Amino acid sequence: MTVITEVPSPFCGVGTDDLTVQVDGIAIKVTANGCVVNTPAFEQAIGDTNSRIAGKTVSFQEAVIKAAALLAETKQPVIGGCATDVNGMRALLSLADCTGAVVDNMGFNAARNNLLTLQDSGWMNTTLAEVKNRCDLLLVLGTDIETVVPRFFEQYLWNEAMFLENISQRQVIYLGKAPSGNAATSPDGQKAQVLACDDSALPDVVGVLRALVKGQPIRAEKAGGIAVADLQSIADKLKAAKYGVVTWGAGALGVGTHAELIVQTVSEMIKDINDKGARCSGLPLAGKDGDLTANQACGWTTGYPARVSFARGYPEYDPFLYDTNLMLANGEADALVWVNAFNAKAVPPESELPTIVIGRSGMILNKEPDVFIPVGTPGIDHAGHAYRTDNVVAIRLKKLRYSGLPSTAEVLTAIEVALKEVKHVD
Amino acid sequence: MLIKLTGGKVYDPASGVAGVIQDVYFQDGRIIDKPSDQPIDKEYDCRGKVIMSGAIDMHTHIGGGKGNIARTMLPEDHRQDPVPRTSITRSGNGHAMPSTYVTGYRYAEMGYTAGFEPAVLPINARQAHMEMGDIPILDKGGYVMLGSDDYFLRLLTAKKDQKAINDYVAWTIHSAKAIGVKVVNPGGINAFKFNQRKLDLDEQNSHYGVTPREILQVLATAVKELGISHPLHVHGCNLGVPGNMQTTLDTIQGIGGLPMHLTHIQFHSYGTEGDLKFSSGAAQIAEAVNKNKNITIDVGQILFGQTVTASGDNMRQHANHKYASPNKWVCMDIECDAGCGVVPFKYKDQNFVNALQWAIGLETFLLVDDPWRIFLTTDHPNGAPFTSYPHLIRLLMDRSFRNEVLETIHPQAQLMTTLGSITREYTLDEIAIMTRAGAAKLIGLKDRGGLSAGYFADITVYTDNVNREAMFTKPDYVFKDGELVVVDGKVVHTKWGTTHVVRPDFDPSVEKDLKSYFDRYLTMKLGNFKISDDEITEDGRGSLTVHPTAGCAV
Predict the structure, then answer these.
(1) How confident is the model over A333-386, as pLDDT tens digits?
(2) Which CATH number fits domain B55-443: 1.25.40, 3.20.20, 1.20.950, 3.40.50?
(3) Is the Cβ pair B72, A395 closer than 8 Å?
(4) What is the pTM of this model?
(5) Quick one: fold of A111-285?
(6) Does the predicted interface ipTM exceed a cut of 0.95?
(7) Which residues of B touch A127 (CB under 8 A)?
(8) C-alpha closest to that of B479 among B71, B143, B86, B30
C-alpha cells in the first residue's frame, strides 16, 4: 500500500491538488481533502479491462483493427465526448485530421455561452489565486457554486489572503439562484446576500444592473422580481470594491437559450466598471470532464475551440452546426466515435450508426457499441495534463497506479496507425 | 549520410565569412570540414545561390495562453487562411495567429529553424511548452517573465539581498524550463491589480513602494550574476505612450551599464512634437543604442494590415482597448504572477499614427550602426505576423522600394519622418547577422546560427534575387539538423526540434520560503508547479538542450 500526497484532480474543475490518496493494488481511497465530486471520481473501481467487438471480448489489437476498418468505410465520422487529457486530444485531433471527422466536445453547448462572448466582444477575467488573495467582493451569478465546486469557498475565499487583513470581511452576493448550502457563509457567520430570481429573469436583471453601473436612469422599480434599489446597491458595491469578481457557470445559465447574451452583458458590465476607474474581473467556472482541455488543445492545433469539422481537409468551425447530437439527428454523420476517459457515466448519445467507444473502464453502456476499448483515466492510470477553470493553468496529472489500461492517446494513435495500413492495403 | 552543398555564396557571420563562394559539408546533422576521402552521398548544386544558416527569431509569440486566446477570439481571421492537410503535413489555419503546426511549416518555409517565445508566465509555462511542443521543425525556447509577481515584489520590499533574488530567478528558470528572463512593464502588471493605470520608471507601486527602475536593476543584475547569456529582456514602461522615448532613454541610463535587451523598441520610441503631438524618437534612441554597448534591441516593426496584439502588459493593453479592431478584446490578471491583454489591431497606412509607427521602426533599423546589437522582429503577431519578414527585409535592403512605399503612407507622417533621406541599405551579411549569428550569440545557443564545423546543420539556401522579398519568401532548400525539410519554399519533410534551456545554479534552500508561500497563498502546490523534464520528452518528440551559463558546467 502506498500513500500519495499533493494529488491533482482533473474532476472538480479548479485543479485541486492537495488530495491524499491511498493506493492498494488498483484500489484507490481518498484519505484527505476529498469532496463529493473528487472522491467518487478517484475511488471508482476499475471495471472491464478487455476490449469488445459487438459485445464479444477480443484482444486490444483486434479491437483497434476493427475500429480502423469501420472508420475506413466512413465518409463523415463524428468524434464526440472529447473528454480526455492534452495528449489524448492531440491524438484525437490527429485522427480527425486524417479521417475528415467532426470533433465536438460534449460540453460545448455550455462552453458556447462563454466562447460566443469571447469571440464577439471579449472580456476581463481573473484566475483563482487572484480571487484568493485580492477579491473583496464576489458576485455569484445564476450558479450554485458549491454543488459543482464543493470546496470553492473553503479554498479561495475563507482562506488566507495576501492583501486582505480580515478575510471574513469579503462580501458574497448571489444574484439569481440561491445557494443550496452554507459554504458561502463567512467564518464569522456572515451569510451571503441573496437576490433570488428565476433563471429566465436573469437577462432582464443583468441588463438593468449594467445600466445602473453605467449610471443610466431606470424607471422600473423591479427587474425580474428584484427591486431596482437592490440592484443599485450591487452596482455601487461593485464600483466601490477594491477587487470585485463576478463568477458564473456557463452551463448553469442555460444551454441552448442564448445565455451567451447574459455572459456578454455581464462581461461588458465588468469592462464598464474598469473604464469607470475601479477594478473588477470575471471568473467563468468550467473545467469539467476535460472541456477546457479540449478547447485549449483544439485551439492551438486548429485555431478554433473544440467544435470543428475536418471534412474539407482543413479545420472549419461552427459553434452550432457541428453539434454531435444534431448531426446524428439530422443524418449528417455515418459513424460515431465516443471518447470519454474521465466519466464512466457519460455514455454516447443513442445512435444506429456504427459506433466506437473509447471509454473509461467501467463505462456501462445503454447499447453495446460495435467496438469498445476501455481506457485508463488521466491522473489515475497515467500521467497527463488538464486545464482548470481559469483556462490559464494546466495541471500535471499523476499516475497513481499500474492498471495496465492504455491511455486515450495510445488507443487513438493505434487506430490511426491501423487505419493508414488499411487504406494502404485498399 | 554525407551531404555537400556546392558552389554557393556563403554568408556566415559567426565565422566572419561574408559572401564567399565555398562548399558546405554536413553529416549526421552537423556541419563538418571538407572530408578528405569520404564519398559524397548527396550533392546539391548551389551555384548562383546564397547560403546562410537557418534563421532564428529571437522574439516571437508562438506559445502560451495569450496566443491561444488570440486564436480562439478570431475565427474570422482564420477563415481567410485555411491550410489543408497533405500527406506529410497537418491541416490548420494561418494569418495573424496561426495554429501551431502551420506556425512551424511557415517559419521553415521562410528559412527559419528556431523561434523563441519571449513571454512565458511561470504559471503558464506548461502551456507554452505544450504549444511549442506541437510546432514542428523549429527549435524553440522561452524567456520566463518576472517582475510583477508578488513573490518577487515581496522580496524587494523585504530588502532581501541580491543572492536571494538570484536564487529565486534561477529556481524559476529551472521550474519553467526557460533560456532567459523577461520583464514586462516592470511592476506595472502588478500595479494594475491595485488599480494603478500607469507606472513611470520612477513611480512607486502603490502597495510595494517599489519602482520599475529598481526592478530592472535587480533583475538585470541577477541575469548577469547567474551567467545567463541572454541579457535581461525588457519590455519597458509606457508602451505606446507618446513621449515614451524619454522613458526609454532613462531606462538605458538607469541600468548603469548592465547588459540589457530592449524589445520591440519601436513601441517605446515616441516623441510629442508636431500638431498631433506624436513624433519619431528613433534618432535619439538609435544614438543612445549606438553609444551604450551594453544595450541590444529588437525593433517590433509594424506592417500594415490586420493583426492581433497579445502582450503580458495588461495595464497598457487595457489603456489601448479603445483601438481594438475588430472591437473585441481580453484582459486578464493571472495567478499573482502576471497578466495578459489581447487586442486585435488593424494598422492602416492612411492613419497618421500607424504610418509614423511604420516609419519609426524602419528609422530605428537604419540608424543603429551595429547589426550584432539589433534584431529583426515584428514582435509577432503584435506589429505584424511573422510571415511578413521577407517584405520587411526588402524594405531594409532596397532603398528605392522603401521610398516607393513611403510615398503612399499618410502625408503628414511622411513629413514627420527622416526615412526618405536615409540612404542606408542593409547588406546580406547584415541580414545574416541580425537573423542568424547575432541572434544565436545573444541567446547563447552554442552550436546554432553558424556554418563552420561542429555547428548543427540548420541551413537555408536561397536563389539570389534583387527582389529580396521574393528571395526570402521562397528558399530553395532548408535543412534542419541536416535533414531536408523544405524545397522551393514548401515543406517536404517534417521532424521535431529541440527545446533550448539554461540551468543556472541556485541554493536549493530557496524552496523553503517558496513552499510556505505556495501553501499559504497560491492555488497549486510547489511540487506540482515545477515542470519536469519528462513533460517535454515523454511523447517521444520533444527533447531538451541545456546551454552553458558562465561559471556553471552543463
Answers:
(1) 999 999 999 999 999 999 999 999 999 999 999 999 999 999 999 999 999 999
(2) 3.20.20
(3) no
(4) 0.97
(5) Dimethylsulfoxide Reductase; domain 2 (3.40.228)
(6) yes
(7) 332-335, 523
(8) B30
